[in-house]
Amino acid sequence: MGLERPYNCLLVIFGGTGDLARRKLYPALFNLFVDGFLPPALRVIAVGRRNFTQDSFRQEILLPSLQTFSRRASDLDAHFEPFATRLHYFRTDIYDPEGYTRLGRFLVELEEAADCQGNRIFYLAVAPDHFGPVVRSLKETGLVPARGWQRVVIEKPFGHDLPSAAELNRQLRAAFSEVEIYRIDHYLGKEMIQNIMVIRFANTFFEPVWNNKYIDHVQITSAETVGVEDRGGYYDRAGALRDMVQNHLLQLVTLVAMEPPASLATEAVRDEKVKVLRSLRPLDAAAVNRNVIRGQYGAGEIDRQTVPPYRREKEVAPDSTTETFVALKLFIENFRWAGVPFYLRTGKRLPVKVTEIILQFKSLPDILYFKEYGELRPNLLVIRVQPLEGVYVQLNAKRPGNNNYIVPIRLDFCQNCEVGVNSPEAYERLLYDVMRGDPTLFTRWDEVEAAWQFVDPIAAAWMARPPLFPNYAAGQWGPPAAQELLIRDGRHWWQEDELLPERG
């Protein structure tokens, strides 16, 4: 994070007693407080329907949240009380107009007492169905425009398809300008995602070979061992395509594939990301059938524990045809990436939890003594996003000894492997950026629009072709067709046992 301190403001969290606030927002704010990154006059207003007093909210919601989810929980004895005085609980129903009027008066009182200069952030930590009504009520009851600056933070999913996303955007724009809308993709707040541009553009030996002349293909994997947990109702309406591919994975594609921006200014970076999305080769029904694989997990084992099939998860239809796994091949039709396939996969109940980007470079011709002295492995650049954070390069080298046998070696950097290293959470960086007005790591409307334009034809093609689910057991890497997607191209998915170096 930079040294620039964010502006004094009020942060109003709708859904202040919900899961997102407890798991992510309060711990992130506390971590920023302990590290000295919060503005001195920041006040947080948690809006909820539950009947809490200020004290009971702090003891029953805030304190357990920080004890369980904060990376700075060991600092609670020294910092909880001064942090808790910044938080206020406001009880109302988000569909009660009178509640917004009372909230407006409360905000004015806080602004005058805390010298927040009328600056307001509205964080919608509520279900997507509530986004439009909340924004409309903010406008109709005079909470926006604010006396100072104003911002609204929207969690994904941003719509269910392009028409619904466009309607939601219309509702937001009725109260906020585009520069005031912060659409969160929490992947963009992760340390190694922010590092992709630095790895590319700050190292002489990478940028010249970051193109179709030297790169054979790119693999992007985001795998989870968990099922849908308590999100079955939402997930069964969304599925892996809308929940992960449309936002997270396509955002990773843009960062890997973008051209060098003219500057690091927000709009310059965003412009280059949009160009990538607009350069994606469209997928018609035939291309979807060939290059996009979907799956749904059945019963199986994860970490030697038997787990139920997706159709038996809580709030999931017993005959659900929602996909929990997607693998696809896409192409970027521009000068840099012409002919280079990007393979993406994501899913629930897979063997390991991992998010990583692998760039495999083209192989050298079989000349000299390579065939005689060992198999020449391809050079790889691996960017690990989670749970390990780091980067390594796979090279070929001579094995120590009197012969010339060739073996792969790894030049490895792990950011969070050392004892005591605890990287900031994604929401820390994102909340910090909202408070200081930097939208670089947030998604602009034309990015959302272009992503839906690519994804919607996939969903439409699937609607015309009912799936045969379940088609992979929990604990497997998706259905067999996901492996065939690469095998038929003479490639394979790199697995963790091939990639991760041993650590003592």
TrEMBL record:
Main enzyme class: oxidoreductase
GO biological process, one term: pentose-phosphate shunt, oxidative branch
Any Gene Ontology CC annotation: cytosol
Pfam families, A to Z: G6PD_C, G6PD_N
Domain of life of the source: Bacteria
Transmembrane segments: none
InterPro entries: G6P_DH, G6P_DH_AS, G6P_DH_C, G6P_DH_NAD-bd, NAD(P)-bd_dom_sf
Binding positions for NADP(+) per the UniProt entry: 15-22, 49, 93-94, 156
Binding site for substrate: 186, 190, 224, 243, 348, 353
EC code(s) of this entry: 1.1.1.49
Protein purpose: Catalyzes the oxidation of glucose 6-phosphate to 6-phosphogluconolactone.
Family per similarity comment: Belongs to the glucose-6-phosphate dehydrogenase family.
Name this polypeptide is given: Glucose-6-phosphate 1-dehydrogenase
Organism: Moorella mulderi DSM 14980
